[in-house]
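Appendix B, record 7
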Amino acid sequence: PAAIAKQAGKAAPAPSSGAAPRKPAGPVHAADKLWTDWSFGALPELMEIKKGNQTLIGFPALIDHGTGVGIEVFDEPEVAASRHALGLRRLFALQIRDALKYLEKNIPDLQKMAVGYMPLGTQEELREQIINVAIDRAFLQEPLPADAEQFKQRVQEGRGRLTLIANEVARMAAGVLQEYMAAVRKIKDTKNAPEATADAQQQLQKLVPKNFIAIAPWAQLGHYARYLKAITARLDKYRADPARDAAKLKELQPLEQRYWRLVAERKGQVDARMQEYRWMLEELRVSFFAQELRTPYPVSSKRLDKVWQQLQQ
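Structure tokens (predicted):
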């Protein structure tokens, strides 16, 4: 809308003249107020807020301040959506404090998982990721609540399934970390294969960063254990045919390099098409280096080229 100007990611003051902006619905809110429950009315598509003596217009988002949430407006709907998800997660968490206290003490096999996670981070960081993903899956399914009634209903619905979901997230994380430890050991123990082990190490760092549970698309997290198994299987086979490994790596590298270049150019902003290509790369690795683990769909360099062409349009 004309009223929304670029200014460090936030909406600028509404102009006093020129084209009239679409009128935001709902009351005008103060930007410095914090809420611990949904008592601020419905969130419209566009909103006005007062900040000092300025009135800002933009896409509204709940902002996580730890002890409560504030409301800010942004000129970019994507920025507003990502910030809003975090604020909404905090608002749900504030409604279910007792359930979260129970969860913090009862994540299955947390200490065992923390041993595998040790090269990446602490047990506390692992626990926080599992709980945050569980909250997202229990409460933040689309369409997101837009008013107090919808929010209250979602709290009631999500509370009943939170523990079950958290156990599922923990089980999946445990499977990934088990294969992660195996891959780390295999890379360390594989001698005289510098190119293959360097490539496997890079793959591992991109696939399993410190916050992998939080950032992995849920549908993909279920495939992580297979991707990691493929690393171990590849290095197991390496000595039998190093020339084949080198040839497949040579075919793979330009397909990967162009993707990571594009990610850097877009400053980490990855859309659905890029995500599709990203996970096809992992499936191609399985196909090249550990065919026995199978891929859920046919994959080849030609298929990746085709998706890449669509990406460029």
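Remarks on this record: The two ends are 26 Å apart (CA to CA). Strands lie at 29-30, 47-51, 54-64, 69-74.
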